[in-house]
Design a protein that fits this description.
Oligomer: single chain
Order of helices and strands: EEHHEHEHHHHHHHHH
Structural class: mainly alpha
Strand content: 5-15%
Radius of gyration: 30 Å
Number of strands: 4
Strand order of the largest sheet: 1-2
Number of helices: 12
């Protein structure tokens, strides 16, 4: 892409820059090596300072001060799902067998156990109608958990990431760009830490509740907690009191989603570590003549900075040949005068003819 009305290349070598000295009222010439940015290209630094910086480093707002629209949608979907399923299972409550307490609580509890695929077996559908309803609500519930509630959990964890990064760097300037870059680099690691911490809290709270309210032994309570959050749900140990099932309505939903997010964060961390190892290998291995030949996109016998960057990005797996082909096709469509560079007149003519 051309810079300064198509007069200069995208990547420039050593370039003389005149600097003004206010004390001597004269200009001194220095040489600097830098990347040129086209005038029409968006500026990166203000975006980082104004949007990302405010997003990650400002104090998180209370959900009561300003509710994220995504939370509203998730709350609406969850309310609709629980309302419809609770009404349906309440109407056919006589066709559900098992250990029952309160009809409404049991209906909501059965919905949660179904949508999270825990399936204790303490409440069982024993008619054709209830079995078909269970089949319908388990699929819709899994979709709700996977598409909506998991995303809501991601949004909530973002605020915790802000608190974590501030706690780890209390002595740093609050609006430091270095802090923002470190948070972006270690985002997956911070997510693993936060979800691990939340998982410990949920396991501990569930175990304490089962031992105190459900009167289980400590080992049985921990066993029930583990079989629940992993959705194993043997059913030999479950919540059997009204208070326990009310607690389970919220706890089961949070714990199963938290474990799923934790496992996903671990998988993402492993993938990211492999990608970083590949990047290190690409940047440290010796460059050969075959590499230069492969990097020479225009077959002119010389590899420019842009060609070398593209070749290395392909080696790192960040782009592929299809991406390059599509971008080059767009470049040729914009290059109306076929000069090999883009100028404002090229872009104006190309877009005005469409």
């Amino acid at each position: 892409m051309a810079c300064n009305d198509g007069k200069e290349p995208l990547l420039c070598e050593h370039q003389e820059v005149q600097e003004h000295n206010p004390q001597t009222d004269c200009y001194t010439t220095t040489k600097s090596r830098k990347l040129r940015r086209c005038r029409s290209a968006p500026t990166v630094e203000p975006i980082l300072q104004e949007s990302n910086l405010n997003r990650f480093l400002n104090s998180p707002k209370s959900i009561f001060d300003e509710v994220n629209p995504h939370y509203k949608r998730v709350a609406t979907y969850l309310f609709i799902y629980l309302s419809i399923s609770t009404i349906c299972f309440y109407l056919v409550r006589n066709q559900i067998s098992g250990d029952k307490t309160n009809s409404i609580v049991d209906s909501i509890y059965f919905c949660i156990v179904t949508m999270t695929t825990v399936g204790y077996g303490d409440l069982l559908p024993n008619s054709t109608t209830t079995k078909l309803l269970a089949c319908a609500f388990v699929f819709s519930g899994m979709a709700l958990v996977g598409l909506c509630l998991s995303r809501a959990a991601d949004c909530l964890v973002e605020n915790q990431e802000v608190l974590l990064i501030k706690a780890m760097h209390l002595r740093r300037e609050p609006n430091s760009m270095e802090t923002l870059k470190e948070m972006e680099t270690n985002r997956v690691r911070y997510r693993c830490i936060i979800f691990s911490f939340l998982m410990v809290i949920l396991i501990a709270s569930g175990t304490v509740f089962l031992t105190t309210i459900e009167k289980m032994e400590l080992v049985d309570a921990f066993y029930c907690v583990c079989s629940t959050i992993t959705t194993l749900g043997y059913g030999d140990k479950s919540f059997s009191t009204p208070a326990g099932r009310i607690f389970a309505i919220f706890w089961i939903l949070m714990s199963t989603i938290c474990l799923a997010q934790l496992l996903f964060a671990f998988a993402e961390s492993y993938t990211e570590s492999r990608q970083r190892s590949l990047v290190r290998w690409v940047l440290t291995r010796k460059t050969t003549a075959a590499d230069l030949e492969a990097a020479d996109l225009d077959d002119d016998g010389v590899v420019g900075a842009a060609e070398f960057v593209i070749y290395k990005l392909k080696e790192m797996g960040k782009i592929n040949q299809e991406d390059i082909t599509l971008i080059m096709a767009q470049f040729k469509n914009l290059d109306v005068d076929e000069s090999g560079t883009l100028s404002p007149s090229d872009i104006f003519l190309a877009q005005s003819t469409r």
